[in-house]
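Throughout our pipeline, every protein is held as a single compact record rather than as scattered files. Such a record has a labelled line for the sequence and another for the backbone structure tokens. This encoding replaces a full spatial description with a residue-level series of whole-number codes. For reference, a complete record is included directly beneath this paragraph.
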Amino acid sequence: MRKYAFATRTSASALMFALCLPAFAQQSQSQTDEEIVHLSPFAVNESANMGRYQAAESTSGSRVRMDLMDSTQSISVVTNEFMSDIGTARLLDATKYVAGISSMGGFQLLMDVMNVRGFSDYDLTIDGFSQFSLSNQDPIIVERIEIVKGPNAILAPQGLPGGVVNNITKTPLFVNKGYASYQVGRWDANRAELDANYVLRPDKLALRVVGAFTDADHYGQGQFHQNTTVMPMFTYRLSPQTEFILQFQASNASIFAGGDIPVSVYAVGRSDVRPQDGLPRDFQIGGRNITAHQKAHNTRFKLSSQITDKLSMRVAGNWVESDVRSNFLGPSDPYLGQTGIVVDPIKLDQITGEWYWDGVTVNPNPTYILGGLKEWPLRLSGNFQNDFVYEHTANTWKSQTVAGYAFGYRSQHFRQINYIPDGIYYDFVNNYTQPAYTLGNDWNFNSSDRYRTNQAYIYEVLHLFENRLVLSGSISQNRYVSNTHNNQTGIRVEEKAEATLPSAGIVYKIIPELSVFYGFSKQEVLGSADPGSAIPPHTRPGRQHEGGLRLRLFEGRLYATVSYFDILQENLWEQDPDNYKAPIPFPLNPAVSTDRTSKGVEFEIAWSPTPNFSLIGSFTDFKFRDEDNIRAPNVAEETAALWASYTFSEGPLRGLRLGIGANYVGERAGDTRGRWTTPPLGYDPVRIQPRFWTPSYTIVEASASYRFKKHWHAQLNIHNLLDRDYVSGSGRSQIYMSTPINPKFTLRYDF
């Protein structure tokens, strides 16, 4: 079958990525099926015949197209078809089926926070650009999700060692098509979507507009979110070899995303991990007057050109402006009695670091002090990238050289103010009503920060012995500058650092369908100095060793991978344990550097044995620990997921698609409320163990969709199908309860 960048026979996802760089004219009447048009190295070329959930290529690992079988790092791809089938309302709905990805638990409506091989990622990555967002990214703009596991000095030299979740946006197509839909449901529904694509000039100019409006109530009392997102964009082909894409994304969100309930005052170890006595499981501390607000504008562009038959170029950039205001009502910690005196039944053994209940101390009616206000009144973020690709093909070998540079800039003003203490210790059980708050006159914290990065890199891939052996390596040179100004004291702190980050790897194909791989990669982020704690200016380097096996059969309809990874992150500074040892030294000893590791195995499979049946699954078993073998809060070290769907193409059920899936999340540690004990004289300090553990859980979800007539499509998604009651996460003295069974119905019109 003929393969070319803008064929009408390829899938929609392939077309979107084919538009990302050098555009080529559509097939003319004089062209035959035997002709082959060169595909841009910045575009993917997926086959529509592989299956709904299969992907063969990715552009995130090295900013250019790469066959997943040739990568020396684990790369997972979530297709748009899969996102649609499971009814993705937030990005985590889809990525939780990927090995190594799990939820932070408490952040359901904020920041798309995910654990990637244990490391928590609080920044959102769109088309390779990292940015801060308080609200979750609306899935309407996302075409597919590419997850690069482990450190990557090309895509994210300042990212986390666990990996990067890169959301690839939709782009204009040179075909007239689109849809409009509306969703209703019990919770997290009431949503309208529009995706309209129009060709203004054939093979020259295409316009696309995607947008969504959500006004959803959630399970918790008063919990809601409203979000309007719209992204108009156009593609202009300056010539058959040069293409320009411009996107403008605007969003406005209001959220009450509390979701937290005070945990039982007797919660310790694996006992009594439940809401505080007397509180319903849907209790919320705040309501619609205690919300977070965010307005944001994001402009992105991509200019690409095929300079010669071997040399290609791309220029890309983005600029983000946001304004964020966030009330917070988190209850105080520790627990208080009716008079404001701390009454915490759970005690800490200062010699062992274990928590326990003495069976005597009680607090039948705990009270709390409430929170304040946070603001990011102006947050700016900008990026610029320029990449060049040179490709050479010989009889038995070929090479690809990628070189480029990038600049990054981030600026923010952050301030926090607390509410004036009103002398009331709030009792949530006895007719609790939201109090009227009065803000203090002065900011408790007020600072301005600027951060700049420069990167230059070169990446080389050699395919030898008729593609049986693939060797790759890269060098990324990076410079970081951080400037922080305390607007209250006038103190300014500037930090600078440089890092040379290598990567290398090898892939050997035992047979064309079976390969083994090994890769080594690094990245490094700029840490924060703290003279008061004797923490010097420093960086936090991370490195990964990873090896595994990949299998691809039946023309890509079966793809499976198993890997072992070993990640180390260094220079995590903390207080010297001897500072907690009696007698306490004076002056205190300087801070000391510590490390943490993430080691384990992952397995993933995507299988479509027939055009009607598709399956995706994953399993992860790893250890994410610090030097004292202590687990991090809210990190599930065992996860598993499986989803399968079947489409009826004949008979009376023609047009019906059924899907069902399950997701398992292992036991997670709760907060430790500190790091070291302060033991009596004669004993050494020990690490404080987790106060409590949130239990493991398995949830099941299902979908049924039906296409009737020519343009209409209906879909029913049911989340938490078995109506399981579980704890999704924890934070400080609070836990986050699950949403009960939740059906959602979507009616869609395709045009």
Residues 1-37 have pLDDT under 50 and may be disordered. The longest strand covers residues 372-393. The CA atoms of residues 494 and 631 lie 33 Å apart.
